[in-house]
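Protocol step 6 of 9: fold each sequence in the batch and record its structure tokens directly after the sequence line. For illustration, a two-sequence batch is reproduced in full.

Sequence one:
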Amino acid sequence: VQLQESGGGSVQSGGSLRLSCAASGNIYKNFIMAWFRQAPGKDREKVADISRYGSSTTYADSVKGRFTISRDNAKNTLYLQMNSLKPEDTAMYYCAARLVGSSTYSYWGQGTQVTVSS
């Protein structure tokens, strides 16, 4: 599986962005998907994940109520809608995939930068 993120950019505090992650291959539905982020000097953080058919999602406390993860298996695409953005959301955002039954995210995109100014 190859993953490619898009949709990052610069936005003012309170603004919104929608990230997309396009996946290659027709086995996309066999993967649990997630968004991670990493800011300079900080550890990588899992922002949200979603089950293979989208029926179950989890979020980091820091983004609950502001971010929404979703997927379209017909389009092999993962999304992250980010609202009410804060300067502390500034980071490189990565999508990642792990096979159902595996505990390891083995597939990663190159990342897309999100910068939120106050």
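Sequence two, same batch, same settings:
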Amino acid sequence: VQLVESGGGVVQPGGSLRLSCKVSNFPFAPYYIFWVRQTPGKGLEWVARIRSSGTYIAYSDSAKDRFTISSDGAKNTVYLQMNSLKSDDTARYYCAMGLTADSNATTLPRGQGTQVTVSS
């Protein structure tokens, strides 16, 4: 499986970014796609989850009410819309693929990641 993340960048606090995770060389359905992030101080943290069909959506407490995960089966791509970004959201964001909703996302194979920096 090949997972390619994109869409990161530098944004001011309160701003928005949309990350993309393109899945290639592997069936998109019926797997689960997870977004995780890593910072030097906190290690790897689960952010959000979605099934390829667009169901079984879940968010971490830090992402709830600010981030929206979605899936486009026609493009084999999962998106993470991030709004009201805070400095604490600064991290490298990765997507990972798992077989079940309760997969340990921090141990799954993931892509190269995309850097998100929230700074004024």
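Proceed to step 7 once all outputs are recorded. Observation for sequence two: The CA atoms of residues 102 and 111 lie 20 Å apart.
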